[in-house]
Amino acid sequence: MAKPLVSIITVNYNESQVTLELLESIRELSYPNIEVIVVDNASPNDNPDCIKERFPEVKLIKSPKNLGFAGGNNLGVKQAKGGYLLFINNDTIVPKDFVEPLVKTLEKDESIGMVSPKIKFHWDSTLIQYAGYTAMNKWTIRNNSIGYHQKDNGDFDTPKETQSIHGAAMMVPTRVVQEVGMMTEIYFLYYEEHDWAEMIKRAGYKIYYQPKSFILHKESVSTGKFSPLKTYYISRNRILFARRNFKALELLVSLIFQCCVSIPKNSLKFLIRREFEHFKALWKAISWNLVHKAA
């Protein structure tokens, strides 16, 4: 019986060499029926043509402008032909057999709308980054990655339903995307996969964690592990997520906590550390939410 086509979609931004390393590992996959789509998000300091030169089998899409994480991936979705869409960060390395357990999970249970593998750190493959997510805290608008920085000793090897997906690697059936819609592009960076998971859950589907599959994640290559850009989008989108997904009372409680605790605390922290660019990024994020009332 023929295996269903899996469309692997990744976004490149100024990191063609990093993307090439991912593609090297994808070329070794044992799954027999894949197409690979690389979306270059208008990289200003990079020439993505080397991707097509090294990997002629890859479909390279050059966006005329930077569309962000969701927009870049959505551009790939529009060109994809697979029955399953596998979104994967370009700063990852995949083992040869990582696709099969994800496909099997979705084939076995059509009530599952998204599935992520176990994610481990590339710099230390004995440490876990993701083994599922806790529910989003209605006060802090944060969730916790289960197993984060814990040893991969077998304690997180049970497949299970989880509260949210991890954007570094997630597989979604095309029929679910056709029913629910693609990722919302208003976020640009961060929180868009959690918003998408909420959309898919509201449509009646489950979110799943499948540890029989894993990837190695280098983490935040394009944006930097701690940058004003990251501060801006995480701060902006945390509030935006609550506005889009919390019920009225939950949103009120959350906004009171943000105004009385989180924002003052982070502002003071940045000022004490003399991290003025981060301070400005935080308040720019708050201002965005005040101006954009119809989010």
Provide structural commentary.
The chain has about 300 residues and is an alpha/beta fold. The chain has two domains: about 5-215, Spore Coat Polysaccharide Biosynthesis Protein SpsA, Chain A, CATH 3.90.550; about 230-290. It is about 40% helix and about 20% strand. It has nine helices and ten strands. It has helices at about 15-25, 50-55, 70-80, 100-110, 175-180, 190-200, 230-245, 250-270, 275-290, and strands at about 5-10, 35-40, 60, 85-90, 90-95, 110-120, 130, 160, 170-175, 205-215. The strands form two sheets. It has a five-stranded mixed sheet, with helices on both faces. Strand 1, helix 1 (about 15-25) and strand 2 form a beta-alpha-beta unit. Helix 8 packs antiparallel against helix 9. The longest helix has 25 residues, at about 250-270. It is globular. The relative contact order is 0.13. The model has no long low-confidence stretch (mean pLDDT about 95).
Précis, in short:
With 295 residues, the chain is an alpha/beta fold. It has 9 helices and 10 strands.
